[in-house]
Every structure is written in structure tokens, then in C-alpha cells.
UniProtKB/TrEMBL annotation, chain A:
Compartment(s): Cell inner membrane
Similarity comment: Belongs to the TRAFAC class TrmE-Era-EngA-EngB-Septin-like GTPase superfamily. FeoB GTPase (TC 9.A.8) family.
GO cellular component term of the entry, any: plasma membrane
NCBIfam families in the cross-refs: feoB
Official protein name in the record: Ferrous iron transport protein B
Record flagged with keyword Protein biosynthesis: no
Pfam families, A to Z: FeoB_C, FeoB_N, Gate
Annotated GO MF terms: ferrous iron transmembrane transporter activity; GTP binding; metal ion binding
Positions of transmembrane segments: 212-231, 268-297, 351-377, 389-410, 448-466, 541-563, 584-605
Main location group: membrane
The organism of origin for this protein: Solimonas fluminis
SUPFAM superfamilies named in the record: P-loop containing nucleoside triphosphate hydrolases
TrEMBL record, chain B:
Lineage of origin: Bacteria, Pseudomonadati, Pseudomonadota, Gammaproteobacteria, Nevskiales
Family annotation (PANTHER family): FE(2+) TRANSPORT PROTEIN A
InterPro entries noted in UniProt: Fe-transptr_FeoA-like, FeoA, FeoA_core_dom, Transcriptional_repressor_C
Keywords, comma-separated and alphabetical: Iron
Domain of life the protein comes from: Bacteria
A GO molecular-function annotation: transition metal ion binding
Name this polypeptide is given: Ferrous iron transport protein A
Ferrous iron transporter FeoA-like domain residues: 1-77
Organism: Solimonas fluminis
Length: 612, 82
């Protein structure tokens, strides 16, 4: 280590405000990735202290103890011990504790003192402690612990100044660990009685809110209203933004079309790239609105309450209340959802959660739903609700019900019936901090746009290529795509999908959908733009499919996408998280089977009812 | 009596946590979370179905525990003290 640089790690209990402090220190200079070999999220950032010293910050996953009981806690333990391969041991640990919850958090600090690393204690959320009348004698605490103690308010501008100043100075000396076998709880009690005075054990406001939120009737009703509101908002708030993106893409396509000479390059740009990517980027507003709600619920402390309310029900279905958070995240994307399952200690609960997570309707499926609903479901009001919103809600509900049934079946095929544990902390309620929410949304938007710019762009171009070559023979009368490679593949696949009502255009779109579901829409746009024989090849997709598909086909495709297993990234994540190809095989197999079955039933029943 | 039998909003004090098997990880974790002799404890709410899980106040923290977990914690009623 040079005097000019320092590697620090933030470590602390869950809910200590560690990530908010991390955001306060590093702002938007963050990198989010995974730890090598495990899908535990690794957040790293950097900042420069006033002296010019570069400080690299690692935000370690929250842990209650070094005796790890989950993959998350194992990462924290191994990094702190310097045992994590490919991860340098930090020069200094910043132990973050919630000043209103010292009884629990200081025990972990005493445990960390045994590691033999220089440490600083960040007394976070000092503002909340002050409001509750908690008085902390910092000098006494510092003397008692033998560590520098600084006060921080992560959510306030300048709230980490004392910490930065401390980090900018000399490294503190190694803390003296307590003798092996000493009673850490007794030590915490001694420290608290010497340095801290607490008028009340709980915040009155928390108790008051919990009386309503955790109420057997009102609590569940509130949860249902919240979920319903989120799904309605995703559909209605996003509409104006989506319209403007759509208009923008159309304008860009037209402008590029006019500026360029007729030919292959123009076709690639207008029919391939602009039509394909435009069809995907349009869903950014919906994804961001969904994540906005998830982040708000998470930051406010509501999510664990929802887990509390649903635990008994989810246990009945072979899951756990803790599954709620991973499953809710899966509505945005199954990958962070499956990753969030790492907070479930019980390996059986974890596996069950991972296997059903793909049944939660991820935002990548939203483009497909949105397209089909807009094309086939009339825009009309049913009571106070909108019919399109109701259909969307039904699709989400179908996924959830299927997940419960699948988890239930898994529970009964399992031989091990020993106890499952819950042990879930319900943190204090907090007003979400706009800056933290903004950083969270920024990260999500970045991840989505990166996918659009890389994998989706590459597939769009590949698909354009497949749909363009070989060119139709001279004198051909049909659309060009009929003669292309894509047309051949689609027609070759069609017999398998004929019973469920998919035409060859859909079959083609299913292929790139394997890499990312939302590509299916871009693929349809590309396929239809290229197969249109009229004058306006970049015409909007909605009227085309509304004209060419039957209602039965549309509903069948919707049913397919409730289960659709075709997301290679999810399967890869399951392999890493669930341990092995067998789990992947089970997941892919059962999802494909259910998708086919659901589509078959939907198609045949609709056909019978509509007299087709 | 055990924490799982403790009526709602009745102040009590932890006596100890029993391992149900050798090195019971749930018991170890409970102790780490602050379920140690002498700590005041209280059940403040129940889940909506089957009175499970229990919402337990220990130290300054609230935890949701299932009945089987709470049954590991033995408690005694707090003496009438402010």
C-alpha cells in the first residue's frame, strides 16, 4: 500500500445503512458486479479524500456474525479474513453500526476486532438516534472499544465528513481483541451502560405503523392494494413516455431512411437496428417504474414486513417468507431475483425459490405482453379498472399461482422434512432517501441499456442477416423473408408449434428470445418489417399483428410467455446458484413443458370458443 | 415457559436458548442475535395465519421467528418493575 491509496471495506449488520453510506462516500463512481464464482453482488467504488489520497471502497454484504449461515455472510467472512480468492484483503475495515440498534450491532464489531485489521467505527444514523433521545458518549465509546469512532448521517449531504477526515489521516493502530471465549454480549452491555443512554427501546412511530401494517386484516389488504397499484402504475404511468420513445424511433428510422441510399446498409440500419432496438428500449420506462417501487419498498423497510405477513402462506406452499423478496425482484428480472435468494439460509428453501423465480413475470416479458395486449385487448373500462390492466394483472397472477403449485409439488417430492428456519429482522421504518433511490435506478437503467447495446444489438444484427440472406430469386412474388434462412428455420420449426397456434414468424422470434426475452419483440418487428411487401416497411408492429394473427394465437403466445423458459442468462444464473446442470435441466424442462401445455390448452379452447 | 408460549405484549426475560441438536445452528444464531440470559423480550405481533410467525422484540431489534424457533428460547415473566 502506498500512502496515496487505501483499500477499505464497509462491513456491518444488515439494515445498518451501509449501502447509503457507500453511496454518500462514492456518489455515482460505483461498479456493480459479482464476486468470482458466486452470484453475490459486489459493489465497489472510489473517491478522493481532500489530501488527494485515493480510497477504494468495497461494500460487503450485510452479516450478523462471522459464523456465516448464508452465501452472503460467507463472502463477508472470507473477504475480511483475506481468504477470498482474487480479492485483496482490505487495509482497513469501516464497521458501520446503526446508532439506534447498538445492542445488536456492537456485538459484531467486537467479533470483527479479532480479525487483526485496523478498524474505524462509523456510528451511522446519528440523526435518528438523536430524534429518539438516544445519547451516545462518543469519547467513552471510543475508549471502551479502543477504536476511533466517528458519527455519520449517510442520508445527509456532508454526513460522512468525519469519516472521510478519519480515513485521510494515519491508519489507526490494530485494535486489541477481547480474550478468546469472553462473553461478547456481556461486553456490549457494559459498553452500553457506560456510554449510551436510551429512553425507550423502540421507536414509537415504528410500533404505531406496525400495528396497522402487520394487522392480520388491514395489513394483508394494504399489501394487496400496494401490489395492484404497482402493476397498474407500470402500465398507465409509462404510456406517455413510451409513446414519445416510439415516436422518436419512428422519426429516426424515417430520417435515416430518407438520408441514405437504397441498399443493404439502409436495410440493416432501418429495418434491423432501429426497428429492433427501438422495440426494446421502449420498455425502459416500465422497467424503471417497477424498480422504483421495489426500491421504495426496500428502502422504507416494508419488504420484510411483507415477508412476515406472507410467511405462513408461503410455508404452506413449500417456500418461506424470505422468498418474497427474491420473488418480488424477479418481477423486474429473474437474475437479481435468483441472486437475492442467497439471503435464504435454508438450502431447500433456496432451491425451491430459485426454481420458481422464473415464473414471476419479469420485465423482459412485459414487452411481449404489452405488444399483444395493445394489439388484441380492447382499451375499455371495467368498473374502475382498465381491461388491459386487468389482463396484465391476470397474467402476473397466473405466474404466481403456478409458482405456488410448482413449489408445493417440489415440497412433496422432497424426502428431507426437517425444520426450516425464518429468523428475519424487521428494521425500523425509514423515509427513503431520494439520492439512494436515484443511484439504484441509475444502476438498473445502466444494466438494461448495456444489454440493449451488447447482446440485444448483436442478436438484432444476426437476425437481420438471417432474414435478409439469401435474397429472393429474381421474379419472386412473396415477401423477401420467405426465401431467407430465417424463413427456412421458422418453417422447419413450425410443425412442432402448429398445435399451439404459432406461425413461422413467431417461431423465428422465439430463437433470439432464448438470449433475452425482450428480443422476441424486436425480432418480430424485424421479421415483419422485412416481410412487409407494402411501401412502409417500418410501419408499427401492432396493426400488423392485429391484422394477421387470430385471437387464439395471441392468447396462446401470452400463455407461452407466462412460463417461457427461453432465457439463457437465467439458466446460467441458476446453474451458478443452484449448483449444477441437473437443476438447470429440471428448471428448463418443467418450464418448457408447462409453457407448451398452457399454450396448447389456451389455443385449442380459444379456437373452440371463437368458432375458428 | 418458552417464547412460543408467551402471550402477546407480556414483558418477559430470556433464560436461555436450548440446542435441539448438537451445534444447532439456529440456536447459535439466536444467541448471536441477542437471545441471552437476562435480556428483556416481548412478543408484539403474530402473523395473520395460524398465529405464525411471531414478531419478537429483543434488545432494540424486532425479529420474525417461527414457532419452532421461538420454542428454543426459554423465558420467564418479568418482575413487575418499571
Amino acid at each position: 500500500m502506498t500512502a496515496q491509496s487505501l483499500r477499505i471495506a464497509l462491513v456491518g449488520n444488515p439494515n445498518c445503512g451501509k449501502t447509503a453510506l457507500f453511496n454518500r462516500l462514492t456518489g455515482s463512481r460505483q461498479k456493480v458486479a459479482n464476486y468470482a464464482g458466486v452470484t453475490v453482488e459486489r459493489k465497489e467504488g472510489r473517491f478522493a479524500a481532500p489530501s488527494g489520497r485515493h480510497i477504494q471502497v468495497l461494500d460487503l454484504p450485510g452479516a450478523y456474525s462471522l459464523a456465516a449461515t448464508s452465501p452472503d455472510e460467507a463472502v463477508t467472512r472470507d473477504v475480511c479474513l483475506g481468504r477470498f480468492e482474487g480479492e485483496a484483503r482490505p487495509d482497513l475495515l469501516v464497521c458501520v453500526v446503526d446508532a439506534t440498534n447498538l445492542r445488536l450491532h456492537l456485538r459484531f464489531v467486537l467479533e470483527l476486532q479479532r480479525l487483526g485489521l485496523p478498524m474505524v467505527l462509523a456510528l451511522n444514523m446519528c440523526d435518528a438516534a438523536e430524534r429518539r433521545g438516544i445519547r451516545i458518549d462518543v469519547a467513552k465509546l471510543q475508549a471502551g472499544l479502543g477504536l476511533p469512532v466517528v458519527q455519520t448521517v449517510a442520508v445527509r449531504r456532508g454526513g460522512a465528513e468525519a469519516l472521510v477526515k478519519q480515513l485521510d489521516g494515519q491508519l489507526p493502530p490494530l485494535p486489541a481483541p477481547l480474550p478468546e471465549g469472553s462473553d461478547l454480549h456481556a461486553e456490549v452491555s457494559r459498553l452500553l451502560s457506560a456510554a449510551v443512554s436510551v429512553p425507550e427501546r423502540t421507536a414509537r412511530i415504528d410500533d404505531a405503523i406496525d400495528r396497522v401494517v402487520l394487522h392480520p386484516v388491514f395489513g394483508l389488504a394494504l399489501l394487496a392494494v400496494l401490489m395492484f397499484t404497482i402493476f397498474q402504475a407500470v402500465f398507465s404511468w409509462a404510456a406517455p413516455l413510451m409513446d414519445s420513445i416510439d415516436a422518436g424511433a419512428a422519426w429516426l428510422g424515417a430520417a435515416a431512411g430518407e438520408a441514405m441510399p437504397e441498399g443493404l446498409l439502409k436495410s440493416l440500419l432501418v429495418d434491423g437496428i432501429i426497428a429492433g432496438l427501438g422495440g426494446v428500449i421502449i420498455f425502459l420506462p416500465q422497467i424503471l417504474i417497477l424498480f422504483l417501487f421495489i426500491l421504495l419498498l426496500e428502502e422504507s423497510g416494508y419488504l420484510p414486513r411483507a415477508a412476515f405477513l406472507l410467511d405462513r402462506m408461503m410455508v404452506g406452499a413449500g417456500l418461506t417468507g424470505r422468498s418474497f423478496i427474491p420473488l418480488l425482484s424477479s418481477f423486474a428480472c429473474a437474475i437479481p431475483g435468483i441472486m437475492a435468494a442467497r439471503t435464504i439460509q435454508d438450502p431447500r428453501d433456496r432451491l425451491a425459490t430459485i426454481l420458481v423465480a422464473p415464473l414471476m413475470t419479469c420485465s423482459a416479458r412485459l414487452p411481449v405482453y404489452a405488444l399483444l395486449i395493445a394489439a388484441f385487448i380492447p382499451q375499455q373500462d371495467v368498473g374502475i379498472f382498465n381491461l388491459q390492466g386487468l389482463v396484465l394483472f391476470a397474467l402476473y397472477a397466473a405466474g404466481i399461482l403456478s409458482a405456488l403449485v410448482v413449489a408445493y409439488v417440489m415440497k412433496w417430492t422432497r424426502r428431507d422434512h426437517s425444520e426450516h428456519s425464518l429468523l428475519l429482522e424487521l428494521p425500523s421504518y425509514r423515509l427513503p432517501n431520494p439520492a439512494d433511490i436515484a443511484i439504484g435506478l441509475w444502476e438498473r437503467a445502466g444494466i438494461f441499456l448495456k444489454r440493449v447495446g451488447t447482446i440485444i444489438l448483436a442478436l438484432t444484427i444476426l437476425l437481420w442477416f438471417l432474414s435478409t440472406f439469401p435474397a429472393p430469386p429474381p421474379g419472386a412474388t412473396g415477401a423477401a423473408i420467405d426465401y431467407s434462412l430465417a424463413g427456412t428455420i421458422g418453417k422447419w420449426m413450425q410443425p412442432l408449434f402448429d398445435p399451439i397456434g404459432f406461425n413461422w414468424q413467431i417461431c423465428i422470434a422465439l430463437i433470439p428470445g432464448l438470449a433475452a426475452r425482450e428480443v422476441a419483440v424486436g425480432a418480430l418487428a424485424t421479421v415483419y418489417a422485412l416481410s412487409a411487401t407494402g411501401e412502409d416497411p417500418s410501419g408499427s408492429l401492432i396493426p400488423i399483428i392485429a391484422d394477421q394473427w387470430t385471437l387464439a394465437t395471441a392468447l396462446s403466445l401470452l400463455a407461452w410467455y407466462v412460463y417461457a423458459p427461453q432465457c439463457l442468462a437465467t439458466l446460467a444464473t441458476i446453474r451458478r446458484e443452484g449448483g449444477g446442470w441437473r437443476t438447470v435441466g429440471i428448471a428448463a424442462g418443467y418450464l418448457f413443458g408447462l409453457a407448451y401445455l398452457a399454450s396448447l390448452v389456451t389455443y385449442q379452447v380459444t379456437l373452440a370458443l371463437t368458432g375458428g | 415457559m418458552t417464547l412460543s408460549e408467551l402471550p402477546r405484549n407480556t414483558p418477559a426475560v430470556v433464560v436461555g436458548v436450548q440446542d435441539v441438536s448438537a451445534g444447532d445452528p439456529i440456536a447459535v444464531r439466536l444467541r448471536e442475535l441477542g437471545f441471552v440470559a437476562g435480556e428483556p423480550v416481548r412478543v408484539t405481533a403474530h402473523g395473520p395465519a395460524g398465529r405464525e410467525p411471531l414478531l419478537v422484540q429483543i434488545g432494540y431489534t424486532r425479529f420474525a421467528l417461527r414457532r419452532a424457533e421461538a420454542a428454543r428460547v426459554s423465558v420467564k415473566l418479568a418482575e413487575a418493575r418499571a
